[in-house]
Design a protein that fits this description.
It is built from 7 helices and 4 strands. The chain has about 160 residues and is of the alpha+beta class. It is globular.
């Protein structure tokens, strides 16, 4: 992650990206079809997210669950972009529910609600791979899918 990217509010960064990506994605969908286009976009964004995760771990000087809680979640929250309820925070598990997400609202506002999974939610696993491949993310509910919460559970791979 370049220094200037780290200084830009993440929601603003996503807004700028979305306004560039939307016309490109829609044009490629017409030419290549929806499924192929979304696979290409998803694969590309996941690679970027892996690199971002690695860069974030380097900038924090570590890649622990504590670092994730203290250094990554606040970045995602920005100026109140997420509301979350902490459920568990131990050496082995970090579990919380996101109850409000401005990223979902942003994509809806821009007419890209159908792309939220590709542009945002689906990147979380790749970011974690780059941040710390010894951790895993479990999540089976998202606000983007119409669920009541996004239920995040980060844990060490050896944890129960």
């Amino acid at each position: 992650m370049a220094q200037t990217e780290q200084q830009v509010d993440l929601l603003l960064r996503r807004r700028i990206e979305a306004q560039v990506l939307l016309p490109l994605i829609r044009a490629f969908e017409k030419r290549l079809g929806r499924e192929e286009t979304r696979k290409i976009v998803s694969d590309t964004l996941k690679e970027i997210s892996r690199k971002d995760g690695n860069a974030k771990a380097e900038s924090l000087g570590g890649n622990s669950l504590e670092g994730l809680a203290a250094g990554v979640i606040p970045m995602w929250q920005g100026g109140g972009h997420l509301e979350l309820e902490m459920k568990e925070s131990t050496d082995d598990v970090l579990r919380f529910d996101v109850t409000r997400c401005d990223y979902v609202a942003l994509y809806e506002e821009l007419g890209m609600g159908d792309l939220t999974e590709v542009l945002s939610c689906g990147r979380d696993w790749a970011f974690l791979e780059g941040f710390n491949p010894g951790l895993e993310l479990l999540r089976d509910q998202t606000l983007a899918a119409g669920d009541r919460v996004c239920n995040f559970c980060y844990r060490k791979k050896h944890a129960l």
